[in-house]
Amino acid sequence: MEMNQYLEIFLEESKEHLQACNDKLLQLEKDPKDLSIVNDIFRSAHTLKGMSATMGYEDLANLTHQMENVLDEIRNEKLQVTPEILDVVFLSVDYLEEMIVSVESGGDGKKDVSDAVEKLKRIEQGQAELLAKEKPYNPKEPIKPSQQYDDFELTIFNQSKEQGFFAYEISVALRHDCLLKAARVYMVFELLDGMGEVIKSTPSVDLLEEEKFDHEFTIAFVSKETAENIKGSIFKVSEIEKVEVQMIHPEALSYSESRTFEQNSFEAMTETAAAVQKEAAEGAQAAKQPAASKTIRVNIERLDSLMNLFEELVIDRGRLESISRELENTELNETVERMSRISGDLQTIILNMRMVPVETVFNRFPRMVRQLAKDLNKKVDLHIIGAETELDRTVIDEIGDPLVHLLRNALDHGIETPDARVKKGKSEEGNLFLRAYHSGNHVFIEVEEDGAGINPHKILKRAVEKGILTEQAGAALTDKQIYELMFAPGFSTAEKISDISGRGVGLDVVKSTIESLGGTVTINSEEGKGTIFSVQLPLTLSIISVMLVELEKEKYGIPISSIIETAVIKKEDILYAHNQKVIDFRGKIVPLVFLKQIFEVPEEETEEALYSIIVVRKGEKMAALAVDSFIGQQEVVLKSLGNYLNEIYAISGATILGDGQVALIIDCNALIN
Asked: Could you tell me the pTM of the whole model?
């Protein structure tokens, strides 16, 4: 039976079941006596075991089988749910996810899961209390490596550990009668290249190739494999006498304060972590378990092709509508109207096919927050709001990593420890909000916490120390401008390097990724009360409804989603405030913006008694845009202006109208800002 044809289905369904396990385990942690939750986890584990066995992934099947045994004991009330048991089941799910990622990247899905299986067996035999007595790793008593590592290498270890890799120091001794030492070294390196990344060798690679060493050499190595697997694999090479594999704990080693990095060094450093981040981003797209309905999975490239074809159809539809109005033919008008209705329905279906709820990204965060809070000895309650908000699939695929950085930043720098919160009169448990909502033609994702807030003086001082700006330049900045300094590459307020923060990478990644998607990120903070990071993203719907307007002989489109209302005002209705023209709109003072001045449209100097205005809004802010005349509402295809014209102020794109003319689409958000 050819299994490859079923591999994609197996991977998708495995991800769904693992996501369900993660979600339900978090629920079970809050309500340990709810056996219905245990039944749900058991069913997911049972299904995953059956699929894995059918596909021939024995390690997956064995681990899920043992996990299933423990869950069966719990649901039959022979075992009580305890934190120790949950930690082991969480560990098992982590291993399962790693094996699925291995299969997805073309691997064999094998992994040494003996430690998890052994712990599950002990739980099944009623020895769960022994797990709590096992001495955990104490970072204050690290295993010291025999080699010295510089800042560059230590940073790679930290980056790798942050992404789920382990750092090892491998000592290999060849037999004294080995004749082809360089060949054996090459075989060891070739073997390790397939399991991870070699960071350093002692002696150097050149000396090893020239056989200018005795019989021993040491390798610094990062991998997701266990020490036992690495050791066993190296021993398969001929003429190996001894192999010692020791884990390196980078958080226990110190950085040299005198060394600084150039930008190219930083880029080289992150090459190792880049593959990990890509793998994490791909593994993050696990969808929620679907309802019992008939569905098919469609490649996103096919949807892109369908979208491009439909965009051309929309342009031709506009042309037909224009021709039918000119000819005033009844039969042609009726046909075009019917075609418009059908294409409108088709448009809705195609756009909805591309839209994905942000919960497909949000689903992985409760587990991450739980573990991180545990590592930091903090109590945190995560509130997810608006997970049903939908975004285009292309945006969904990119926002995972930026949100991870924002959540980690909020937990590490924002929310205080329980003792510190109590001293400030707060509850022990910090609140972390992750919310998403639509506003106009944008989606906003906010990460908010009720922690210590941001001290602008501390930010400014650190920015000056880092050489990001001078003290004189900093004195003229507002608090909001100071907050923006946090997005500078290499900026960090951490006093010491840890596996969670302090390396100055994070917020700069957030900003660059969000801006590459056409979005923005802003910070609002109140010292002592908390901070909000607000990410604004475009829906990336290429077909939008606009109000077409005229400025002299030029045509522009204003997105309907930004418009509150249109009106005609008299010249005497225009007021002045702080030398700015304003109008009174329903009791609110709203700035009046003349678009002809903004876009430098040549105009005749004539005094007008009446002005056509369009009131637009972004959040709580509003503005009134003065135009020459309204043409009407129309659906248009939004096209990018390309790389050469991407910096044009207040223009988000262009469209081709039914008569063949090009109309620019106005970015109301930029005007209001």
From this structure: 0.51
